[in-house]
Design a protein that fits this description.
heterodimer, B: mainly alpha, 4 helices
Chain lengths: 89, 114
């Protein structure tokens, strides 16, 4: 039952990756692309957690946490660059 | 229906609900009309999605593993702290760029020289 649920959830997450990727390609403005990239980062963290759950291994949380941190830093830096034209003032 | 089946059903429901919330967030990102409405989907639904995924994972690992496993909660905690910050910065950037959807708002603050 858990195996089926994890397969279904992986499918749903794959669809969600595809939707965010379409927005990443289409996004009329750079801000939309940054937002889509942030969503992709969070989805990647979720997918890693699901993969670890499927394998029954608890070692993937560190990787998911690292991906979430990198996504946050990327979003902050890119939007700060959009606002100010500079990252470290 | 004994306890392990109940736990299994709980974990399955949480996993599917988490992935469903992520899907709803990305759907909102794709379908909403302008940037400021698009910001809602990922910043709220995705947070709940990954939160419920990790609650499922914590329950599963606590039942299967040697003891109560709580370090999963670092990830939803981190995301719940950082998502409002990044959404705020993105909204500020979008307002600075005067994206459509912000008509009638007051003028953006002038950038301060710091």
């Amino acid at each position: 039952m858990i195996g089926t649920a994890i397969q279904l959830a992986l499918g749903l997450l794959a669809v969600s990756f595809a939707l965010a990727f379409v927005r990443l390609l289409r996004g009329p403005d750079v801000a939309d692309r940054i937002l889509a990239l942030d969503t992709l980062y969070v989805n990647a963290a979720a997918m890693l957690v699901l993969y670890g759950l499927q394998l029954g291994v608890g070692r993937y949380y560190e990787a998911a946490l690292l991906i979430a941190m990198l996504g946050f830093i990327t979003t902050v830096v890119l939007s700060k660059f959009l606002t100010r034209g500079d990252i470290i003032e | 229906m004994d306890a392990s089946q109940v736990l299994e059903a709980l974990v399955s429901a949480l996993v599917v609900a988490g992935a469903g919330f992520s899907l709803i967030g990305s759907l909102g990102l794709l379908r909403m009309p302008d940037f400021f409405t698009r910001l809602h989907g990922p910043s709220k639904a995705t947070t709940i999605g990954i939160g419920s995924l990790l609650v499922a994972s914590a329950v599963y690992m606590s039942v299967r593993g040697p003891g109560v496993s709580l370090h999963e909660f670092m990830i939803p905690l981190f995301i719940a702290i950082t998502t409002p910050v990044s959404s705020h910065l993105l909204a500020k950037a979008a307002r600075h760029r005067r994206l459509p959807g912000a008509e009638g708002w007051s003028e953006p603050d002038q950038p301060r020289n710091r």
